[in-house]
Amino acid sequence: MPLRSNTRPLITGLMLAAMGLAPVTGAWAGDTATPTTPAGPQEVGRNGQPKGPLPAPAPTPAPTTTEHATSADAALRETLPNGLRVVIVPDRLAPVVTTEINYLAGSNDAPAGFPGTAHATEHMMFRGSKGLDKDQLAEIGAKLGGEYNADTTETVTQYFYTAPADDLGVVLRIEALRMNGLSLNEADWDKERGAIEQEVSRDLSSPAYKYLSQLQAIMFAGTPYAHDALGTRPSFDKTDAKLLRHFYETWYAPNNAILVIAGDVDPQAALSQVKQAFGALPRKTLPGHAAFALAPVKAETLNLPTDYPYGIATIAYRMPGSTAKDFAAADILGDVLSSERGAFYGLVPSGDALAAQFLYRPKPAVGFGVAFTAFPRGGDADALLAKMRAVMADVVKNGVPADLVEAAKRREVAQIAERNDSISGLAQSWSNVLAFQGLDSPDALADAYRAVTVADVDRVAREVLNPDHAITAVLTPESSGKPISGKGFGGAESFASPPEKPVPLPEWANAALTALHLPPASPAPVVDTLPNGLRLIVQPEHVTSTVSVYGQIRQAPSLEEPKGQEGVATIVDRMFDYGSEQHDRLAFQAALDAIAADENAGATFTLKVQSAHFPAALSLLAENELHPVFPADAFAVVQKQTAGSLAGLLQSPDYLFGRAMLRGLVPANDPSLRQATPQTVMALTPADATAFYHRAFRPDLTTIVIVGDVTPEQARSEVEKTFGGWKNDGPTPRVDLPPVPLSGPSHAYVPNRSTLQANISLAETLGLKPDQPDHFTLTLGNEILGDGFSSRLYRDLRVKSGYVYSVSSRLNWGRTRSEYGISYGADPDNIAKARALAINDIKAMQNHPVSEDELTRAKASLLRQIPMGRASFDAIGQEYLHLADLGLPLNQPDLAAQHYFTTTAAELQAAFRQWLRPNDLAEVVEGPPDGH
Fold first, then answer.
1. Strand partners, 750
2. Are residues 760 and 834 in contact, defined by beta-carbon separation less than 8 angstroms?
3. DSSP assignment, residue 551?
């Protein structure tokens, strides 16, 4: 299972915040991809939210009022006689429930020399237990159709399920069986060891992970925090089932766990189910957690290579942990340092840095903060570090601005309230405050933020921002080489597909999951079209006092950018961070801070705000979107930054990987192959940007989706006030790329000196569009082939062989182009073996009808997934935006349900025969230079 250690969000932040441009990673640049398809590195806009083809999921941090059903006062809390703490929080957003069970043990409790024991135990929790073997567990997970996974941190291991609310009893039974009767046999560990070591290789291939590992080793030397929760390959090689069983039997007990349930449940009925599932489990005598002392940090400088297209300069400081009395003040300090109105972020508009952000990452007992900046390939890291140190020294000497402290406090409290707009986010919010912070509720955390004073923040700044105890690091880009064409990688192998056998389920699961049911029809939104052509979709949801806005203007830069002006679309999108005609950059951010609104403008735009401030926030969004400014001084800075980013991007392995795949899928003269260069960007003028804006930003290609605590009438009225006067300028541009012929086989290898594990993608174009019925049939078949823990690809490439850590197959749909692909990561000597198994699995889908058991499982999964697609404001908003972008009806999920329900095995086999071509897959491998 993926590890959600405390360093993962920091890795994500480092990667996202420093990205100035998005490399082309597929054949459909400028067209439409599914919302779940990674679009590659993306530019970061206001408040650190990424810009890109679709809005990234916003942080889903719980109201501090009691007017909505999801307030802390509505939560039911009880401790069972065996010590299990239970918190049940109702949320009526969708007929969905999330359970999150938090065991208060993690990598800090591992035996000496075995840092990954907690992580390995987490993996084995999916290998079966007494009364529920691994095949049954996988079968139930697939039929539930939800999301289930786990994460390991230093002090807490979490297991979470999101499933239809009617299936809560099934999920609780699973967790109860795993709490007290885990199988943990040597044969299963031998197989899981291979997969977990692949995970280690994957993470060790990340320059950011390598940096953070070294940082923690220095920052927390002599303590359990010096080791990441992931573990090491040597420790896993000497780990056996006996050691894992001892850890499990020591720490996995009801009196060492907190169970959080959030969603569309009756709290008392849910509590009865909890008692029935867990009530008979015995409590245990728990050992104490090992005590440790922190030694002072000595200043040190690290120099590391990176395969990123830019350099990163960082200064790290030890900071208070999440249970410390100064946690809230430290968090506010981090927010102030990251504020776009602050001096540290000011290094970006001044042209000194490509990106700047302060990231605070608390662990329970201690934490750390990283001030990081990004600089172009070949830039002067020393000069940038000097400016960073000067900013921090000024904060220590003169304190932080009081208005930025108050803005940060408002925003933190608002984000806690906003977490109620996601059922899984609500469960995670409660789990975090209970298990990691020792607080009573998210409201208690909000109170802690409110109590922070400027003096508190200044004191913490003086204590932690000490250069004598800071760890400095520079990650310098290095070239890895150009792609190599070849005849494939490794020798061909032949594998027989194992026989498919139905998995008999325990009676308690069989009774709940066997029968197929169509989900209830999705609530219909209110849809309007303004006179200027703008399409408005409104979905009222009153579970929390929050409104979210999602917008998209259909664009295709590869078709709309004039010849010789490649890169102008990127320049225009980045200029939205410089305010509007009415407010300059600082004044605009101050206006957002005053109402704690998160806003991003551009070709895709988002807004999240408390409903009381919705009119003001929407007015600011429209002001930014409709009246951007292109001042010469700011344009020159953005132009130089973009050109500098491109210089590194065009040499980076990730870019070369995506470019190689693109060349394998489209003709040599395809518009999607157009590429901005530093030269084309530096030749642009503010007039070019203004002209592109007026051509490409237009209401007749725009869709706005509003979800939340608002009426359709209010939403329409406010949109008319703010966007109704927007005019179309000139003829409507062409924004659909021309269809492409079916692609053929090709092979490319992209060397990457920074990676230990290879990243492999197999892909081909499809002659099928999303408005054709077989679009549903292939989606159903892909559920069997490669989507999830019970898929054939996962079973054959990971569970049975251990060749990969993760594998998935995907269907990307566009109005004029569609794509099928498989992605996996593997050690170089397993590339050919894994590919052979993958191709064999595709051909098996074509040559033999799937079993009735597999078909029923896939149908059950997809039918249950449909209501779960409405379990957060983001999911609702992005689904509508995606459907509008593809030109599909907004009741597409209901149409899909009808199709899934009636599809036969013969129809599925026929669709795979007609549309997939396993012999035509283009293959691109990014891996170690000596792995080819």
1. 926
2. yes
3. E
**Rounded to an integer, what distance in angstroms lies between the CA atom of residue 158 and that of residue 709?**
31
- CA dihedral defined by 850, 852, 855, 859, rounded to 10 degrees? 170
464 and 530 fall within a common domain:
no
751 with 683, same domain: the answer is: no
SS (H, E, C) 412-476: HHHHHHHHHHEHHHHHHHHHHHHHHCCCCCHHHHHHHHHCCCHHHHHHHHHHHCCHHHCEEEEEE
Distance of alpha carbon 599 from alpha carbon 45, whole angstroms? 9
Task: Give the residue from 671, 691, 723 where a domain finishes.
Answer: 723
- pLDDT for 279: 97
Contacts of 669 (CB under 8 A, 6+ apart): none
Tens of pLDDT along 300-326? 999 998 888 899 999 999 999 999 999
Residue pLDDT, tens place only, 20-56: 333 222 333 222 222 222 222 222 333 333 333 222 3
Which range (141-150, 273-282, 488-497) has the least confidence?
488-497
Q: Which two tokens stand for residue 290?
A: 């090992």
In angstroms, rounded to a whole number, what is the distance separating the alpha carbons of residues 452 and 873? Answer: 30
Q: What's the pLDDT band for 798 if we cut at 50, 70, 90? A: confident
Note the pLDDT tens digit of each residue in 50-100: 333 222 323 333 333 333 444 677 899 999 999 999 999 999 999 999 999
User: Domain boundary at 698, 723, 748, which?
Assistant: 723
pLDDT value at residue 283: 97
Q: Which value, in Å, is the radius of gyration of the alpha carbons in the chain?
A: 27
Which tokens in the block code for residue 559?
Answer: 């078709």
The DSSP symbol for 47 reads: G
pLDDT band at 515 (very low <50, low <70, confident <90, very high): confident
Distances (CA, A) of 15 to 5, 368, 373: 16, 18, 11
Q: Tell which residue, 671, 690, 787, 781, has the closest CA to residue 735.
A: 671
Angle of helix 774-785 relative to helix 905-915, nearest 10 degrees, comes to 100
497 pLDDT higher than 90: no
My answer on whether 199 and 341 are in the same domain is: no
Q: 211 lies in which domain range?
A: 72-278
Q: Is residue 490 part of a domain?
A: no
Q: Does 813 lie in the same domain as 696?
A: no
Nearest to 65 by CA among 343, 420, 335: 420
* CB distance 837 to 843 below 8 Å: no
Specify whether 814 is located in the same domain as 911: yes
SS (H, E, C) 557-625: HHHHCCCCCCCHHHHHHHHHHHEECCCEHHHHHHHHHHCCCEEECCCEEEEEEEHHHHHHHHHHHHHHH
Give the contacts of 479 (CB within 8 A, at least 6 positions apart): 651
Q: What is the pLDDT of residues 669-681, one digit of tens each?
A: 999 999 999 999 9
Q: Is the per-residue pLDDT at 926 higher than 50? A: yes
For residue 508, the SS3 value is: helix
Q: Is the pLDDT assigned to residue 17 strictly greater than 50?
A: no
Distance CA 540, CA 538 (A): 6
User: For the domain that residue 388 is a member of, what is the CATH number?
Assistant: 3.30.830.10
* 313 belongs to a structural domain: yes
Q: How far is CA 828 from CA 299, 531, 760, 807, 832, in A?
A: 38, 58, 10, 15, 8
Q: Is residue 117 part of a domain?
A: yes
- Do 540 and 601 share a domain, yes or no? yes
In a domain, 10, yes or no: no
Return d(Cα 637, Cα 346) in angstroms, integer. Answer: 12
Q: What is the distance of C-alpha 80 from the center of its chain?
A: 35
Same domain, 637 and 575: yes
- Looking at the structure of the chain, the number of domains it has is 4
Asked if 574 and 660 sit in the same domain, the reply is yes
Please give the order of strands across the beta sheet that includes 484-485.
484-485, 746-751, 922-927, 758-766, 818-826, 804-813
The answer to whether residue 499 scores a pLDDT higher than 50 is: no
pTM given for the model:
0.90
